[in-house]
Amino acid sequence: MKKTTGMDRATTRNWRPATRAIRGGTWRSEHGETSEALFLTSGYTYDDAQTVADRFAGEAEGMTYSRLQNPTVAMLEERIALLEGAEACRAQASGMAAMTAALLCQLSTGDHVVAARAAFGSCRWLVDNLLPRFGIETSVIDSADNTQWEAAIRPNTKVFFFESPANPTLDIVDLQFVCDLAKAHGITTVVDNAFASPALQRPLEFGADVVAYSATKLMDGQGRVLAGAVCGSEEFITETLLPFQRNTGPNLAPFNAWVVLKGLETLSLRAHKQSEQAVALGRFLEPRVEQAGGRMLHPGLPSHPRHNLALVQMDATGPIFAFDVGTRERAFAILDALELIDISNNIGDARSLLCHPASTTHASMGEEARAEMGVTEGLLRINVGLEDIADLTEDLDRALAASGI
């Protein structure tokens, strides 16, 4: 295989984002295919014994085993790195594989992690349960309070870990402040950017060290495959992450990588259109929800406490927001009355999806932990898709009326 003419790193990094999303990382075989090839192979053959010895010694380029390299996966990694503005990227089997690898590859017994309390349920499980098993201390803070980040630092603090926007409460972290603070204390920032994707927010531009993804979400964008990615410096990816990944094996299947490559081609178009529709739908819902005594959690609306910060950090505020209707009974009534929008706990899909986090994505956390992070019994989280906004509005109008709102 060879890279497309002009595909040296200097050339591709001069391309603008839309071009990178279509052509970044494209390799072509001798057949000259236009679409990226799908390489379904676990191993590779070699012309002679010295070639394979040199590859395993790291003295020659080339594939050795698909747990380490695969052409289709490598194309995806290169394209994500280009979109992110990162030096390097390693794809992972899922979003949670990415979060786990990004943390465990650099942490040891005796280290300390400061994490945001508002997070996806499985990310909180890593912080609350998994890391402490290995003697890694953790502190959970309100990520929207800048003073709490500094107050939580200890001599052994190694990592700041957070999402922005956060799942499902849409907390917004001041990226510049937190990343600057971390650098001043020699702390590594690991940012889960799944709610935004590089089409809407690039944490590395604010000084983040590592950006991790569930590529299952916006990058795929059509609910087809599981995938994850970790982006960072060449040194971090090669010297810190790669040894962990090589020996633990959370690798992405080539087919899944190929699907995400196709998704990246339309990522920016989808993310911006879905963001636009989410703002429109939020504006429709807000007066109804507030009149019923509920609350909106939408960074794209002026009512969000960090609306202005979101506009500074993000190109658009994303397709996902949440709203609280007071009780589980009322939330379930809305879900049960839907005719168009699907009940689903996924996000980033081109289809509109609505779920009740307290009984799904955050059910395993326990009532006390959910209350701490603001996941109430009346909270609903919506992923706004690409359907006609009038149809989505009518569907929610019916559902709200059926619940008494």
How would you portray this structure in words?
- Helix content is 40%, strand content 15%.
- 49% of the residues are buried.
- It has 15 helices and 14 strands.
- Strand 4 (112-116), helix 6 and strand 5 form a beta-alpha-beta unit.
- It folds into two domains: 2-264, 3-Layer(aba) Sandwich (Aspartate Aminotransferase, domain 2); 268-403, Aspartate Aminotransferase, domain 1, CATH 3.90.1150.
- Helix 2 runs antiparallel to helix 4, helix 5 (95-104) packs parallel to helix 6 (121-133) and helix 13 (328-337) crosses helix 15.
- It starts with a strand and ends with a helix.
Please outline what is shown here:
The protein is α/β, with parallel strands linked by helices. It contains 15 helices and 14 strands. The chain has two domains: 2-264, Aspartate Aminotransferase, domain 2; 268-403, Aspartate Aminotransferase, domain 1.
Question: Could you list some keywords that capture this structure?
Answer:
14 strands; alpha/beta; 15 helices; Aspartate Aminotransferase, domain 2; 405 residues; 7-stranded mixed sheet; Aspartate Aminotransferase, domain 1
Detail the topology: elements first, then pairings.
Blueprint: E1 2-3, H1 9-12, H2 17-23, E2 27-28, H3 49-56, H4 71-84, E3 88-92, H5 95-104, E4 112-116, H6 121-133, E5 137-141, H7 146-152, E6 157-163, H8 175-184, E7 188-192, E8 210-214, E9 228-232, H9 234-248, H10 254-264, H11 267-291, E10 295-297, H12 307-313, E11 320-324, H13 328-337, E12 342-343, E13 353-355, H14 367-373, E14 379-383, H15 389-403
